[in-house]
Structures are given as C-alpha cells and as structure tokens.
Design a protein that fits this description.
The protein is mostly helical. The protein contains nine helices and three strands; from the N terminus they run ααααααβββααα. Helices cover 51% and strands 10% of the residues. It is globular.
Length: 240
C-alpha cells in the first residue's frame, strides 16, 4: 500500500469526514480543517481547534484543553510521523528486524491522533440531543437514547487504566456498537467507524476532576455535539 492509499484508508477507518456548512459550528469545522489528519504534503498534522480553549468551560477547563490538545494530542502527531518514517527507513535499509517495533508504535500514535481529532469535534458548549436518522438508529439498536447513554457512560467509566469509550457504526451490519478501547488501539473491532468518542485518559480530567472519572464522564453529556455524531453516522453509512 503506498502512502496516499494508506492515508486514505486511515481516514476512512477513523470516521474522518468534512461536515457540511449548515450551522455556525459545522462551518467553523469546515473552515479550520480540523478533520484533516494530514497536511498538504501527506504528513500527519495537528490542525487548529475549531473553538477557543475556554469554549468548553465549565465542563472542561481551559488549562486542561490547552495541555491536552497541545501536548498529548500534539505529541502523538509528532510521534506518528517519526514512526512512519522509521518504518520507511527499515524498508529502505532492508532491516526488517525493527519493523515490528515501529508498526506497533505507529498503531498507538496514529490511533491517538484519529481519536483525538474526533473527540474535539464531538464537543460543543451547549446541550444537544440526537435527532433524525441518528435517533432512529439509536432506537433501533438500543431501544432508547437513555439506554444508550447509560451504556456509553458505564463503558467509558469502566475502562481499565487509560483509554476511550466509543460509539461506532459498522457498515457491514448496519448497526451501532459501543466498545471500550484501552490505550488508543486495544479492544477495537475491525470495520467499526467511530462516530462519538469519550477520552478517559487521566490527562483529560485530572486538573479539574482529580480522580473522579465518573463525574467527568457524566459532565461530558452536557457538551456532546450530537449533530457532529449524526454527520459522522451519515458519512459512515455510505460504506454499507
């Protein structure tokens, strides 16, 4: 697989898409290019946040957003570029003994980049609820929105160590699924496209919530951008 195809496949599996300009928030996403994983040269790139760092207060404080975005997400992007470069170097030098190490690193760092990119766009500063096609899909697969919320919350709070709670769509089965993801890549399901992710690494909440992960997860339901999740579902459904 060449680099261009690799980037395209990564974007598809990560649920990466551009949002149509139908409201102020989605317009800022489109203009900022937050959903782009790479720059014009094909290198993994940290795009600008689609809002100010204090936009998510009080649910998520400005200092946490700054540190989380700049260093945790930003460092993952830098590391993914190094990992990919080292894989290429190993191939060029026919030194395949190191490939296993660097491909594992790439899986970890690129998955972090993908999930963080989705995470930032999944958040807004007002309460929203699922509507339309997304709500119908939720009711089909989980019965009610409240049941889905309970499942996502319990799943996210219960991640062993660091990781993510994920609501994803599987085009092959036309179903939504909720899963835990340890670290950034473990316990994932092949073919599932994330449409909503909840970051429960300690760096997401420790400054404000200390060790109270459950309180942090509950607070996020007041700022989840379900319109963004709906757009991601619509794009994911095109792969059915």
């Amino acid at each position: 697989m060449n680099r261009k195809k690799f980037m395209k496949a990564s974007a598809i599996m990560g649920g990466i898409s551009f949002l149509p300009i139908d409201n102020v928030f989605s317009q800022s996403l489109e203009e900022s290019g937050m959903d782009r994983l790479t720059d014009k040269n094909g290198n993994f790139a940290l795009q600008s946040l689609p809002y100010n760092e204090n936009f998510l207060e009080p649910s998520m404080d400005q200092e946490t957003v700054h540190l989380h975005y700049t260093f945790h997400h930003g460092d993952a992007v830098k590391a993914a570029n190094k990992d990919l470069e080292m894989v290429k170097k190993a191939l060029d030098e026919n030194n395949l003994e190191t490939v296993d190490y660097w491909t594992k690193k790439l899986s970890y760092h690129l998955s972090s980049h993908i999930l963080h990119t989705i995470f930032w766009t999944n958040l807004t500063n007002k309460k929203t609820d699922p509507t339309g096609t997304l709500l119908k899909q939720i009711e089909k697969d989980f019965g009610t929105y409240d049941r889905l919320k309970s499942l996502i919350a319990k799943t996210s709070k219960g991640v062993d160590g660091n990781g993510w709670g994920i609501l994803g769509y599987h085009p092959s089965t036309d179903k939504l699924t909720v899963l835990q993801c340890e670290n950034h890549e473990k316990l994932t399901q092949w073919g599932v496209i994330p449409i909503l992710v909840i970051d429960v690494w300690e760096h997401s909440y420790y400054l404000k919530y200390r060790n109270r992960r459950a309180e942090f997860v509950d607070s996020l339901f007041g700022i989840i951008n379900w319109d963004n999740a709906a757009e991601r579902l619509n794009n994911a459904a095109k792969f059915r």
